[in-house]
Amino acid sequence: MSRFIGAIALSVLAGAATANAALIDLMPGGATGLVGTTSAVDTELAGSTSSMVDVEIPFQIFGNGGANDGPPPLLYEGILQNRIVTSDDTGEFHFYYRIRDTNGSLNGILGSVETFGFADWTTRVEYRTDSLGDVGPSRAERSAGTGDALHYLFGNPFFAPEESLFFFAATEAMNYTMAKTTIYLTTGESVTLDTFAPAIPSPGSWAIFGVGGLAVVRRRRR
User: Fold this and answer.
1) pLDDT value of residue 202
2) pLDDT band for position 65 (50/70/90)?
3) For residue 167, what are the β-bridge partners?
4) Percentages helix, strand, coil for the chain, rounded to the nearest 5?
5) What span, in angstroms and rounded, lies between the C-alpha atoms of 140 and 121?
6) N or C: which end of the chain has fewer CB within 10 A?
7) How far is the C-alpha of 3 from the C-alpha of 178, rounded, in Å?
8) What is the average pLDDT value for the chain, to the nearest integer?
9) In this structure, how many other beta carbons lie within 10 angstroms of the beta carbon of residue 19?
10) Cα(112)–Cα(183) distance, rounded to whole angstroms?
11) Cβ(190)–Cβ(182) under 8 Å?
12) Count of domains forming the chain
């Protein structure tokens, strides 16, 4: 009887752990709804960053043309905060994005954010309900093939001066490089910025890992 009760207890604990595993493994060509999570639910999200990899990038999005051949109208402006968080549990890099400090006097409506540089990486996505901000993306999509692009869509209207919650991609990377992120309005106008992305170590660093370490690095890529 005690073994039976113990088995039930283990089963319940395993089920609870599964229920709390809110991060969504987004495969190339896939799409998923997002509901938000916290570091209390997904403990691997607890981590640290530094000023070198926590940057604020001002941006502006203009219309296609002004009246009477004047300058194109300014539709939207704000700051993209882009940071890398190193997980305390795993030492792996999570890539975070947040739209903040938006100009409430403008009429543009933010629709989605697409970030690049994730080809062949295992990538899990969500947004943080325990972060600063007002609105989280309702859906995430990943491009087909190598899965290079992650597209976060805001299903609810996102009017300035509202700000987004942090949304992120958890990877198995332990190095980073630079790639691109494009911010779209619901009317199609956009701006593209330089942002962080996962990277394998440079050839010069492979000697540090040795043959065994290189095998580990290769296995981390999908």
Assistant:
1) 53
2) confident
3) 97, 127
4) 20, 40, 35
5) 16
6) N
7) 54
8) 84
9) 9
10) 6
11) yes
12) 1
